TrEMBL record:
Pathway: Cofactor biosynthesis; ubiquinone biosynthesis
Keyword set, alphabetical order: Methyltransferase, S-adenosyl-L-methionine, Transferase, Ubiquinone biosynthesis
Domain of life: Bacteria
Known EC number: 2.1.1.222, 2.1.1.64
Organism: Blastomonas fulva
Gene Ontology BP term (one): methylation
GO molecular function (one): methyltransferase activity
Similarity comment: family membership: Belongs to the methyltransferase superfamily. UbiG/COQ3 family.
Protein name per Swiss-Prot or TrEMBL: Ubiquinone biosynthesis O-methyltransferase
Gene name of the record: ubiG
Substrates-to-products reaction catalysed: a 3-demethylubiquinol + S-adenosyl-L-methionine = a ubiquinol + S-adenosyl-L-homocysteine + H(+); a 3-(all-trans-polyprenyl)benzene-1,2-diol + S-adenosyl-L-methionine = a 2-methoxy-6-(all-trans-polyprenyl)phenol + S-adenosyl-L-homocysteine + H(+)
InterPro entries: SAM-dependent_MTases_sf, UbiG_MeTrfase
HAMAP family for this protein: UbiG (MF_00472)
Length: 250
């Protein structure tokens, strides 16, 4: 028996650039196609999920090897797109909210979750518009490099993190390697849609750590996402291309 996901729209008053939202909205129809314009995300998602599961197990060790370690906990995926990460969080047992600024992405997310029998509270909204809600787990993957005010965005993420909660972030690093690999090469060969990245908006780990600290948050772990011809994308100590962070309240 299928469980229908829901979608609600809220007034825009946040840090997501409308042009960025429109760009990703145009990709909605192919978001779930592993050979489409979002192919890179499909390769990236298993790497992110491995890191996320490990962080969850360390933060809530009482869950042990449970199949649903997020059972009884709430989660929000900020900048969820069509739900590539949001759905796995639901499968891990969480009561999940997915936020995205592009209505087309939210519609695609609702349709896909309903088709596979998952219940997710999808909303077309910016994180800054949420009031009075907090979540045990806050995730935002490859989003902060698309916002107009990273400090305000990070502060909003911090406001929705419940006491004792866990935040997980990922974003490209601003290095020569990321410029060559993510902007010039990946967009040229079609692994990433043209116009997806503005290298100048990438944040270094030090810059993001400072923003998090200013918002009353602490980074407790940083891992890189690297690439090579044999392993493909994989977790690494090398943060030059892309990195993940585990964050808690200070």
């Amino acid at each position: 028996m299928m469980n229908a996901s829901t979608a609600t729209a809220e007034a825009r008053n946040g840090t997501i650039d409308p042009e960025e939202a429109a760009h990703f909205g145009r990709l909605a129809a192919e978001w779930w196609d592993p050979r489409g314009e979002s192919a890179m995300l499909h390769r990236l998602n298993p790497v992110r999920l491995a890191y996320i599961r490990n962080a969850i197990d360390h933060h809530w060790p009482e869950a042990g090897a449970a199949r649903k370690p997020l059972a009884g906990r709430s989660a929000i995926d900020v900048g969820c797109g069509a739900g590539l990460l949001t759905e796995p969080l639901a499968r891990l047992g969480a009561k999940v909210t997915g936020l995205d600024a592009a209505a087309e992405n939210v519609a695609a997310a609702v349709a896909h979750a309903s088709a596979v029998g998952l219940t997710v509270d999808y909303r077309c909204a910016d994180i800054e518009t949420l009031e009075g809600e907090q979540f045990d787990l806050v995730t935002s993957m490859e989003v902060i490099e698309h916002v107009t005010d990273p400090a305000a965005f990070v502060a909003a993420l911090g406001r929705v993190l419940a006491p004792g909660g866990l935040m997980l972030l990922s974003t490209p690093n601003r290095t020569t390697m990321s410029r060559i690999m993510l902007v010039e090469a990946a967009e040229r060969i079609g692994q990433v849609p043209r116009g997806t990245h503005d290298w100048h908006k990438f944040l270094t780990p030090e810059e993001l750590s400072d923003l998090l600290s200013a918002a009353g948050l602490s980074v407790i772990d940083t891992r890189g996402i690297a690439w090579d011809p044999i392993k493909g994308l994989h977790l690494s100590d090398n943060v030059a291309l892309n990195y993940l962070m585990t964050v808690v309240r200070t």
